Amino acid sequence: MTYFLGIDLGTSAVKCILVDDQGKVKASHSEEYPLLQPEPGWAEQHPEDWWKGTVASVVALLAKASVAGDEVAGIGLSGQMHGSVFLDSELQVVRPALLWCDQRTAAECDFIEQAVGGQAELGRLTGNKALTGFTAPKVIWLRNHEPEHYRQTQHLLLPKDYVRLQLTGALGMDVADASGTLLLDVAERKWSEDVVNRLDIPMEWLPPLFESNEVAGYLLAEIAQLTGLKTGTPVVAGGGDQACGAVGVGVVREGIASVALGTSGVVFVHDDSYQMDPACRLHSFCHGVPGKWHRMGVMLAAGGSFQWWKNHFAFEELQQAEAEGRDVYEFLTALAESAPLGSEGLLFMPYLTGERTPHPDPKARGGFIGLNLRHGKAHLTRAVLEGITFGLRDSMELIKASGIEIKELRVSGGGARSLFWRQMIADIFGYPVITVNSTDGPAYGAAVMAASGVLQQEISDLCERWIETVERVDPNPQRQAQYEKYYEVYQTLYPTLKNTMHQLNDLVSS
């Protein structure tokens, strides 16, 4: 049997899976690493921690699966997007990487738009607006605030590309992940010389570009000895976690959208041709499918909001889950289900770390609206889930307005395990919600990309053969009508409270 290794470098852990040449997952293993927050709103990680976690995960995975290294025919990588890895001339890390959820670069975003000639011009050149999570603002921040580190820098990589560098010794980046740097001409799938020159960023810092299934290097002998893999194993370029996650659930043709329920939440739709939102509220990126594109909306704290609620207010549920050896989220979703639809007039705003789509606002803040003495933990728990889902629907509304016809939603991520939440998504979005047999998300997509590159088969063909529908949940018309009324109210909250959010944020930061 031949296997393909998918490596997904997440924000909290690296996950590695082995997929056989029939698309079946043999085994998986994860290794966690820390997130650094040296200042409020900052988020950093040491690239060395990613690498150590990857090596440990690969070694453990091969042992768990009882698979020899020479049975692994190819390696694909997925990873958290936008993070900036600054390397010197010796390919050594200059400073900890600034991550996708880091919010320190609001001033740099303003500078970028001015330097390029305005938001419309930036959108024309890159398909996107300047957002604090993107990579280019981090480069400008380094130049403004850490000039010594800026002078040392000679190369710029994204997180999973640093891991590929360690595996192969080769610099590179795929066009899907590069789309989130704000330095790529997304329409032409090449670096934007106009943007790079106007921002005065050295072009030589930027690595060679690949399609996601192209071989970008081969495993070094010393890394083969370290991991148990075979010297010379092909390593494909891979993609950002959202492109890989979409491949992993089969969103490789028009008419299918996906909702990824991770720490962040993403609504993703495939495009056969390059399209962009003129207002740049949606991201327009290259897809992991060669020659294709996608649009997506991003909520910064989707599962992150539910995790926050669990960490601070679910003490009894945590104890019960530990005592029974079960997932605490099972108890929380059951609690939410016990409250009525609409949580008796209670709404939750899920802007706990600012927001991206459709409100690109690092000062956006969360809150409960409508509290009264009748509300208990069940109401608040349900309101959190409903608020997250309303916020994700905001992205779907933008996708629908662009003229794309959606026939089904494929849901993935930790939240997709809950039938209750999947039904809520179907009722709020108004589309059938599908789950598929591949549940390893971006790691599975990375393995598909590896198989495509090694076997010389189209990604879409592999997805058609390997990915199957497991369960379908249809909207309930009565609940859908009720949720429509609550969603109309939800849409008024951000514009009504924006100034208040900003005032409170400024009081804290002053």
Strand order of the largest sheet: 18-19-17-16-22-23-24
Shape: globular
- Summarize model confidence as the mean pLDDT: 95
Percent of residues in β-strands: 15-25%
Helix content: 40-55%
How many β-strand runs?
Answer: 24
Distance between the termini: 61 Å
What is the overall number of helices?
A: 18
Low-confidence stretches: none
Radius of gyration, CA atoms, in whole angstroms? 22 Å
How would you describe what is shown here?
The structure is a single chain. The chain is 42% helix and 20% strand. It contains 18 helices and 24 strands. A seven-stranded mixed sheet has the order 18-19-17-16-22-23-24, sandwiched between helices. Strands 3-2-1-5-15 form a five-stranded mixed sheet, sandwiched between helices. Strand 2 (13-20) and strand 3 form a beta hairpin. Helix 12 (315-324) packs across helix 13 (328-337). The longest helix is centred in the last third of the chain and has 33 residues, at 477-509. It is globular.
